[in-house]
């Protein structure tokens, strides 16, 4: 029986399993087939109990070598809890969210570590509405895994597993339907960096169907190469390809295609701040942006915030993480939000962040404007110099408790006092990688570089 597996064999950390984006880590450490089996079983038990009617659970995965193993173990756990499983195979994370929300599924699961390197992986849950699973349900699943759950009723029958890649067509059609009627991308030459990940099938298909001329990079699913010197965290090859092919613009997705960054026709990076600015203007002109409000995180550039305010709009900042952006949007009724990293949320079009959908809308906005993306960038805003430096800290407990380091707190206070209202500092532990992130933003690059080096040295000294 699933529940008889010794808890100690799972090598569970003292800190919670569920982070800001599900369960994530290096495969073979905490993240094992045994853990995935237990996660699947207890997710099945918890979601059955929470549902009025017991429907299926949708599973998708990216191209990592460990994704098949984890998806199989998770499906075994779910079916042992009496749950029917629809396995989509290789697909973008937003595809899982969409199909969960538009079917009678009681939940969805994506096997992916997003932009992380190939040796990492993760298990990300969605509720029946396609949004991230509620924290109380995550806690209940973890309690079961840790042997702390109350009594529960064992299922009377096993669930069935079905391989359903054909359902992805519904997701593709929904993305096309999100565009204005008769939208065509004919005449646009576009470079797509598919990061050897979850976007390799869907993104070229939909851009081609809409008439675009495509040049694709890293277009084959490859578990050894996913996110390696490619995708949204490594724009060099995309920038070179846009210049070589004299393309109108380019897009780079991350491993699970829930985020995207763009490159303009001059080879310049166009991040989530610019995407929010352009898409915000477009929605505002259509009367589809309530109070002209955009929700973003503390990472958003001051240049973007002040430019949007100059247009009469409002910028609302949250903690880093799309779950915080989504929660604020849900409570305030905002219709556009996202992160500088390219994770963009447009609830009138999608229940989750969607890199491919975002790229489609940015392309359509550029084409309809009659201008190049570079011209749109030039007429928008100037960013403040901003440096983000990542310091690797493998000690999970020390990393998560970084705020208790008094020398670091003193150094942050010193930097903030010196810069006043001309700059800012943000130090945080990554919720998805073994990193402490140090971000400094100031009016001058000299100040930005000085305080970044100073703070990074303090982190390296004490961690």
Automatic annotation (TrEMBL):
Residues 389-449 form the Alpha-D-phosphohexomutase C-terminal domain. This is Phosphoglucosamine mutase. HAMAP family: GlmM_B (MF_01554_B). Catalyzes the conversion of glucosamine-6-phosphate to glucosamine-1-phosphate. It comes from the Bacteria. The lineage of its organism: Bacteria, Bacillati, Cyanobacteriota, Cyanophyceae, Gomontiellales. The modification Phosphoserine is found at residue 114. Mg(2+) binds at residues 114, 254, 256, 258. Binds 1 Mg(2+) ion per subunit. Signal peptide: none annotated.
């Amino acid at each position: 029986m699933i529940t008889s597996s010794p808890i100690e064999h799972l090598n569970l950390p003292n800190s919670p399993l569920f982070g800001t984006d599900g369960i994530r880590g290096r495969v073979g450490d905490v993240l094992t087939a045994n853990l995935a089996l237990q996660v699947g079983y207890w997710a099945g038990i918890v979601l059955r109990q929470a549902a009025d009617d017991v429907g299926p659970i949708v599973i998708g995965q990216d191209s990592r070598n460990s994704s098949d193993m984890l998806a199989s173990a998770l499906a075994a756990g779910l079916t042992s809890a009496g749950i029917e499983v629809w396995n989509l195979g290789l697909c973008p994370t937003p595809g899982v969210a969409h199909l969960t929300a538009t079917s009678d599924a009681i939940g969805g699961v994506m096997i992916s570590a997003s932009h992380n390197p190939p040796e990492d992986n993760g298990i990300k849950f969605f509720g029946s509405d396609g949004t991230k699973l509620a924290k109380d349900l995550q806690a209940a699943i973890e309690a079961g895994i840790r042997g702390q759950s109350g009594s529960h009723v064992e299922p009377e029958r096993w669930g069935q597993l079905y391989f359903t890649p054909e359902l992805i067509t519904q997701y593709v059609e929904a993305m096309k339907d999100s565009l204005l009627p008769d939208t065509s991308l004919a005449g646009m030459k576009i470079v797509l960096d598919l990061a050897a990940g979850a976007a390799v099938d869907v993104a070229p298909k939909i851009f081609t169907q809409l008439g675009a001329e495509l040049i694709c990079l890293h277009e084959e699913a490859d578990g050894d190469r996913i996110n390696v010197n490619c995708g949204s965290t490594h724009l060099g090859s995309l920038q070179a390809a846009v210049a070589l092919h004299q393309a109108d613009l380019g897009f780079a997705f991350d491993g699970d295609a829930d985020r995207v960054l763009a490159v303009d026709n001059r080879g310049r990076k166009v991040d989530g701040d610019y995407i929010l600015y352009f898409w915000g203007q477009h929605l505002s002109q259509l009367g589809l942006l309530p109070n002209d409000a955009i929700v973003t995180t503390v990472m958003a550039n001051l240049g973007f915030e002040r430019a949007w305010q100059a247009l009469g709009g409002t910028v609302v900042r949250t903690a880093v993480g799309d779950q915080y952006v989504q929660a604020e949007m849900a409570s305030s009724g905002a219709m556009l939000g996202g992160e500088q990293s390219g994770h963009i949320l447009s609830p009138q079009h999608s229940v989750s962040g969607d890199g491919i959908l975002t790229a489609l809308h940015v392309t359509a906005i550029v084409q309809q404007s009659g201008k190049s993306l570079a011209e749109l960038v030039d007429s928008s805003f100037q960013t403040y110099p901003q440096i983000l430096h990542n310091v690797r800290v493998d000690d999970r407990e020390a990393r998560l408790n970084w705020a208790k380091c008094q020398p670091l707190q003193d150094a942050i206070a010193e930097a903030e006092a010196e810069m006043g209202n001309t700059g800012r500092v943000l130090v945080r532990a990554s919720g998805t990688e073994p990193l402490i992130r140090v971000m400094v933003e100031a009016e001058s690059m000299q100040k930005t570089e000085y305080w970044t080096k100073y703070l990074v040295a303090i982190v390296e000294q004490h961690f």
